[in-house]
Design goal:
CATH superfamily: Vaccinia Virus protein VP39
Number of domains: 1
Bound molecules: S-adenosylmethionine
Strand order of the largest sheet: 3-2-1-4-5-7-6
Strand content: 15-25%
Radius of gyration: 18 Å
Oligomer: single chain
Length: 265
């Protein structure tokens, strides 16, 4: 099994787990979220992440492509701003695509690899990619494809993670992050967009607003479930240990969480 197949298998399994679904409030999201706008739950933070990326588009309207749509929660959220015929979403996992079709009725949801977009040149006014580009083999290949399928004047918005090189082999193996994506720093990351012809490139370091908020929320979650009577004392104790481990792991391996926008001239 390749590292990519393993990563997809893990996502397919974890996204279906009952604990995960409860933590995300049954929303189908699977991202760290954006907490700076006062989100009271992971679901709200995940919705806010899509909103904060959409706010970075020069304008709404036209056709939008949601790359690596997961279970279709981001796609469903796009339907609040775009008519269904304007929304296309892709994911590499057949199982996630099947759920995304249910979660985002009316949108076109296709199984596809982000580095081989099966669309004609200049098909979309906007491309959004929430917390997934670090997995693509490679991120640079995806950026080239995004540039190709965007219309002139169109924009790409994404949230992305820079991982620590120190953890290179662990991150690559466990999280399915190709080594080519372990970019050294934000200037090198930003340079990739310029080299492909993007302009108006903005890269904001939102590590505390996204990863930090997620880690705080995850660690607090079992206790709040217990206080609500939604989790027994022993389950909440066991969950607290697991949540601390997950929060600690992501804190250790991640260097920066980025909010990015760029335009095709
Ligand atoms: C952290 S999840 C984010 C899902 C969704 N965007 C969200 O915010 O809820 C990463 C997603 O990337 C998808 N993915 C990974 N590699 C991919 C690729 N090469 N092409 C398309 N999707 C991919 C995974 O299947 C998974 O759904």
């Amino acid at each position: 099994m390749t590292a990519q197949q393993n990563m997809v298998r893990i996502y397919d399994r974890v996204m279906k787990s009952s604990k995960q679904r409860r933590y995300y409030g049954g929303s189908g999201f699977y991202n760290f979220g954006y907490w700076a706008t006062g989100a009271a739950s992971q679901r709200e933070a995940s919705e806010a992440l899509v909103d904060t990326l959409l706010a970075r588009l020069p304008g709404k309207g036209g056709a939008i492509l949601d790359v690596a749509c997961g279970l279709g929660a981001s796609t469903r959220h796009l339907l609040l701003s775009y008519p269904p015929q304007a929304v296309t979403a892709i994911n590499i996992s057949a199982a996630q695509v099947a759920t995304a079709r249910q979660n985002a009725p009316g949108a076109t949801v296709l199984q596809m690899d982000a580095v081989k977009l099966d669309f004609a040149d200049e098909s979309f006014d906007a491309v959004i990619c929430v917390e997934a580009a670090f997995h693509f083999d490679t991120r640079a290949a995806f950026l080239a494809e995004a540039h190709r399928v965007l219309k002139p004047g169109g924009a790409l918005v994404l949230s992305d993670i820079l991982f620590r090189r120190l953890f290179a082999s662990g991150v690559s193996d466990r999280l399915g992050v190709p080594k080519a994506n372990l970019v050294a720093d934000i200037p090198s990351y930003k340079a990739q967009f310029g080299a492909l012809g993007f302009t108006d490139i903005a890269v904001e370091d939102a590590t505390d607003q996204c990863l930090g908020g997620f880690r705080r929320s995850l660690v607090a979650w079992p206790g709040s479930e217990y206080r609500k009577g939604a989790m027994s004392f022993t389950t909440s104790l066991a969950s607290a240990a697991v949540c601390r481990l997950i929060a600690g792991y992501f804190g250790a391996v991640s260097k920066s969480y980025l909010l990015v926008s760029a335009r095709k001239p």
